[in-house]
């Protein structure tokens, strides 16, 4: 077993507690789907921890157990600070948290982004964190507005062509 995961002072194989994952300084706004994902992740981690603890005599389980415990501390902290933002009853009057937004870039390419919480963000799927530069550029814009998205390679102009509730 790697010495990094043992208590050197007494030679035991009890895992050292891993440092906690960093917590964002931004408000922890979550969509209903994002909250459900966090809750499901907590349940999965609790089950993983129970399974790994049942194999406590296996030194190979010590590091995965420490990782699962660290991850559960993170998820529990995120659940404890979650601020649920439910979608509006009617249409979105402007781009807001939870909205799906269609934009057209300078080259005529249409893309859909949904503004979500940090733990739900997945840019490859068009799910962008509310604190991201793109989301900050889009927030509060209205249909037909052209917004400037600052990027390292230069500013991109995006025209808002649709604002709607996220498809479930």
Condensed summary:
The chain has 168 residues and is an alpha/beta fold. The protein is 29% helix and 20% strand.
Reported for the largest beta sheet, the result is: 5 strands, mixed
Examine the secondary-structure arrangement and name the CATH architecture of the largest domain. Answer: Roll
Structural class per helix/strand content?
alpha/beta
Tally of contiguous helical segments: 3
* Helix proportion range: 25-40%
Biggest sheet, spatial arrangement of strands: 5-4-3-7-6
GO biological process, one term: DNA-templated transcription elongation
Keywords: Elongation factor, Protein biosynthesis
Biased composition (Basic and acidic residues): 1-10
Region (Disordered): 1-32
Question: If you had to describe this structure to a student in words, what would you say it looks like?
Answer:
It is a single chain. By secondary structure, this protein is α/β, with parallel strands linked by helices. Helices cover 29% and strands 20% of the residues. The protein contains 3 helices and 7 strands. The strands form 2 sheets. The chain has a 5-stranded mixed sheet with strand order 5-4-3-7-6. Strand 3 (99-104) and strand 4 (110-116) form a beta hairpin. Helix 1 (32-53) runs antiparallel to helix 2. The mean pLDDT is 90. Keywords: Elongation factor, Protein biosynthesis.
